[in-house]
Amino acid sequence: MAHVDWMIKGPEISTCNCDWGCPCQFNALPTRGNCRAVVGMRVDEGHFGDVRLDGLKAVGCFAWPGAIHEGHGEALAVIDETASPEQRDALLKILSGQETEPFATIFSVIAAMTETMHEPMFRPIEFETDQESRTGRFAVAGLVEARAEPIRNPVTGEAHRARVALPHGFEYAEAEYASSTTRTTGPIENDWAGRHAHFCMLQLGPNGVIH
Questions:
Q1: What is the model's pTM?
Q2: Nearest residue to 161 (alpha-carbon basis) of 148, 147, 178
Q3: Has residue 1 been placed in a domain?
Q4: 193: domain range?
Q5: Would you say residue 184 lies in a domain?
């Protein structure tokens, strides 16, 4: 099946309620039996057909009663308010797994495992990231506040570094693992500290991760 030609490239910070490392990344069950995630990204370079997406930001809030692959999830997308109507439509199509080979991207997987899609919001989004130092933050005023920092050695307090490669992954080829503190309000509420985070550079298209 032919899809619209699209591509996005840019940094992502992903946070979830699992312990550091997130067993879901290795096909194990989530730490606490359920999965809740809050993710921020910035498109440094991208397009959907003829629509340019450079510089736009997006945030996603997600919740599943069990593991993601068991389904019955809910999701909320927040799109940069500076996006034009055409850009909003393009980003929402990408984020909802449209114009994509089934299960080829993280967006397609999430969409397939989600039964409740809340109405998207269009708000100012703050996004800062430094993958090398494993520090970053993204926020939507009155809705989302997420921070990530290095995992700390429990004895020395020194920053601990863990880099994971997933050659056949549907989100990233390589990521830096970290620790998150996240709070959200609105239709999907979350509140945690000292849980999993990862930093990666997304480079995705209709057929999955672009290597």
A1: 0.97
A2: 178
A3: no
A4: 6-23+32-209
A5: yes
